[in-house]
Design brief:
It contains ten helices and six strands, in the order αααβββααααβαβαβα. By secondary structure, it is α/β, with parallel strands linked by helices. It has a domain of about 140 residues: Uracil-DNA Glycosylase, subunit E (3-Layer(aba) Sandwich).
Length: about 260
């Protein structure tokens, strides 16, 4: 193992699924080869996510990955950045008496993702995703014996069960560094991960589908490692238009992610 990779990153390999360890090590080597100064400088800097969660997305075995949901980067708040894309750590309860919980409504991307799921499931229409309609859905969701999930933890578990690797285009956020700059530094790592997924063997499902949300994630479309991978792209979920995106509705609708 190359000595120019700081120990702080190598020590975190024990927290990922064993099938990812060699891939992540190779990816870190690729970052170091492209810019030997980057990882040592990052190790001395403050970045999100904290508490050793930088590789938290890699809990799903490589062979179980059917989709790679690619976000832009970690949430810019410590309590929210979990190392898993779009799963805001400041959120737990999904519902309230008025509709979605206050925490979900504050997490704009998550709010729009949930509303898109409700439209796809037929509980809302694109023209009416708030007010009384949302309160009616919430009442059904919170009722005794409801088939709806109640927490973000359950939503993440449903995504994982369907084979989603919940990854960000850059694994770190630093308020004093433009996200596009960190994303560029992590690109060799992402190329390594995508190459491993594109070339895995004994896969009954074929190569995983890339689900690209937002402009930074869509830049991965140009990488040669993604040429053999199916792709679905959309605007970033913080755009209200995401709620009515039919490509996303067709992908997620059959999964019924808001159900237990």
């Amino acid at each position: 193992m190359a000595t120019h990779i700081p120990t702080v990153f190598l020590d975190l390999l024990s927290s990922v699924h064993p099938s990812w360890r060699n891939i992540i090590s190779t990816g870190l080597e690729a970052i170091a080869d492209a810019d030997p100064a980057y990882l040592p400088a990052l190790a001395k800097d403050d970045f999100l996510p904290t508490r050793g969660r930088i590789f938290a997305a890699f809990s799903l075995p490589v062979e179980s990955v059917r989709y790679v949901l690619m976000g832009e980067g970690p949430y810019p708040r410590e309590e929210s950045a979990t190392g898993v894309c779009f799963m805001d750590g400041a959120v737990e309860a999904l519902w309230s008496e008025k509709g979605l919980s206050k925490q979900v409504n504050r997490a704009t991307s998550l709010r729009n993702f949930m509303k898109m799921l409700l439209v796809a499931d037929g509980y809302l229409t694109v023209e009416n995703t708030s007010g009384e309609s949302m309160a009616e859905v919430s009442a059904k969701a919170r009722a005794i014996g409801s088939p709806f999930i109640q927490t973000l933890t359950e939503l993440q578990a449903n995504l994982t069960r369907h084979g989603f690797l919940l990854l960000n285009a850059t694994l770190v956020y630093r308020p004093h560094v433009p996200p596009i700059k960190d994303a560029r530094a992590w690109r060799p790592f992402m190329r390594t991960v995508l190459a491993a997924l594109a070339t895995r063997s004994d896969d009954r499902h074929g190569p995983p589908t890339l689900v690209l949300w937002g402009k930074i994630a869509e830049q991965l479309d140009a990488l040669p490692e993604t040429h053999s991978l199916p792709k679905l792209a959309s605007e970033h979920p913080y755009n209200l238009s995401f709620i009515g995106n039919q490509t996303m509705q067709q992908l997620f609708g059959p999964m019924h992610l808001l159900k237990k």
